[in-house]
From TrEMBL:
Residues 3-155 form the Arb2 domain. This is Arb2 domain-containing protein. It comes from Akanthomyces muscarius (Entomopathogenic fungus). It comes from the Eukaryota. InterPro entries: Arb2_dom. Residues 266-299 are annotated as: Disordered. The lineage of its organism: Eukaryota, Fungi, Dikarya, Ascomycota, Pezizomycotina. Pfam families: Arb2 (PF22749).
Amino acid sequence: MAGVVKAIQRRKSTGIILANMGESYWSPEHKRAITVVDSRALSMPSLVHMGVQYHPQVNDIPGSESPLCHARTVLSTIVAKNANKNAKINIIAAGDSCEVIASLLDEEKTWAEWGPSLQGALFFCPAFYLDTKQAGLKDFLAKKSRGYSTSEKPLGTPLSGPEGNSTERIPPLGFPCYSTGEQSLDELCVISALEHGLSYLDEVANIPDYENPAVTIVERATAEEAVNAWDELSPDQKPMISAMDENQLQEQVKNIRRMRYFAKTGHVPDSDDEFDMKDEAAGSSLPVQPWEEASPRLT
């Protein structure tokens, strides 16, 4: 998170407010907020106790009883107190927070109050479907927001438009989605694509009446298309694939063992049992051990 803050600070005229939507459970033992999942790992009085019981009066944080409540509190208190009336707000959310902030903005009261102040938004690894009720929010997401998802494609490659893309397993998010260049780890999405996303927010801020351009998606080939492409290749373009009879393979293995036995003992084996070397130690498959070549024998 420190790296994220430093990257944002390099932009001019930027104030940063962090919302910790994950830690909504107060732990008296540690005197700090923790996640609900972490609360299950709190120490118990003894091994025979069933677990740590949840008490709303003790474990709830006023105004942050849930991620949605926390986001609403931050917006209505911290942002309202520290941002002037003409300030423009950019939103950066990651993971489950994407759905939380989108749901908050879709509330009629919230959108009426904060919608005009929004300038742009970044959603890293979004995974939700929101049937947007506020027409203004739907327009904002489609025109001035962008998502980034895991993909083996290069950073910044368009993956879907607002309507989603089933071949890339991206639901209709309401905004275009681009590749982070990170193939599988969601935790690295922000790190991999942050600078790319911040450049996008700069573009939104510097171009009057900015709107997302139409994206061109390069569709993945279907299984049928891949088979047809293989059939269209000439024989010299296809890799050579051969099959061997099992008996022939076993005979080749025997010949290799005979050669290894001869190299080791200096005489030809009289039978298959004699050169059966199943009890060889690991690393002894070479006729001459490499360390024997490199090290002189001691006599």
